[in-house]
Amino acid sequence: MISCRDFISELGNLLDEDVASEIRQQLEAHLAHCNTCQVLYDSTRQTLRIVTESGSFEYPEPIAEPLVSKVMDRIRSSCEPDNPVRK
Amino acid sequence: MGFLPEIDVPLSAESLTTLKQNFGLAPGIYRAQMIRPDLVDAQVRLLDQLLFTKGALSRVQKEFILLAVSAENNNSYFPALHCQTLQFLGVKPEQSQRVAIDHREANLSEPEVVLLDFARKLASSPHSFTDVDVESLRKSHFNEEQILEAVLMVGLTQLLNCLQMGLGTEPDFKPRVIPVKEVNPPVASERQIPVPELSGDFASDDPDFEIVARVRNGETDAFEELVRKHGRRVYRSLLGIVGSPEEAEDGLQDVFFKAFQHLSHFEGRSRFSTWLVRIAINTGLQRVRSRKEFDSIDEDNEEFRPRNIQAWTDTPEDSYSREELRRLVEREVMKLPVKYRVALMLRDLEELSTEEAAAALGLSVPGLKARVLRGRLMLRESMVQYFSKTSAGKS
Questions:
Q1: Is the Cβ pair A72, B223 closer than 8 Å?
Q2: What is the complex's ipTM, to 2 decimals?
Q3: Model pTM score
Q4: Contact status of B156 with chain A (Cβ, < 8 Å)
């Protein structure tokens, strides 16, 4: 039977669904009798769902196009023949 | 082929001996300058006096400066050459790779970390370099001669990098030290420092293959498509590191400008987008470091023990509006130490694969996984206050 510590060390792979079936069975067996790890697993999974669905750190649409223009202006001016910046 | 015609004039016997003794060959960067053999001899003498001859700094310390500063410049020629040289000097390739990517994570002694902080800053932000930076070396017990050699080594590295870029010198050696995965599949998990393009082969399923090729062929306007396509990812990677939208916007411009400038050095063994994210991460970290509030990225061995194990409500997000949730997540993610935050952002917000995120951060896959898990657990812990059964909706 695996310990809570073993469970936590495999938790990342479990969340990423990247565990071999025999390990998964051991982890599930642990969860069946360890309420602490079950709560930890559920709440971390919920955390991930909230983070990925929250729309956080979005690239604000209003700034996207002006930024593209700024970048391209800088690049084009660096390519002008009298500009010493190497292309 | 470089930018200048190659002249079929042999190097002087003295220069050839010095170069062969130290590199095992005469690097193309010198052969490319044979229009002026006298200047080549002068450069080789400088290299010999400053780098190869025993001085106040150790040879390894000087090689580390060369490696770190070249990597800072996104130069791919010298890191490969000098990783190899360092291996001759007994430094493991993995450690050289770490120095190139982030010397603070290379298990160096504290004075060596300070030395490379000094070198990278002098190379990348000379305008903000002051006597305080010199004093940092004195505090780490470097003497005046060692400080002078450190400055000279940064200068020598800049000269070498500049020569290679200015002459368009192609690598003429195989980077034996650095393991490079086969081109197909183009997973860059084993390649952690820039490696020269040896045969022009490209990650064959890179969706940006065609656009990159057009830009490299002089179609500057085609780059706009890459900016539009990858702006969001670059912006988010930067924001996750620097924390302020204004600074992320500034950084985004720098990232794309650097990418454009260095496109001829993009070796094509990883996807263009992975290469771009790596530039974004370096740019972000550089900005955070210059604010001097960069939290230590040395691994703390202390095990993270989750606390606050309280059950959450089934649909915790229902207690908050979408806007509240977005702000809450941004606030709590930004509280994470940067090393965990960036790993978590790349995996869980950018949804890079583990291998891609590891390559972008210059970490091993297990190292990356450990950081992502730690970030997720820390974030979970900070979310308990909002989402546990006893506290949901009470923010």
A1: yes
A2: 0.84
A3: 0.53
A4: no
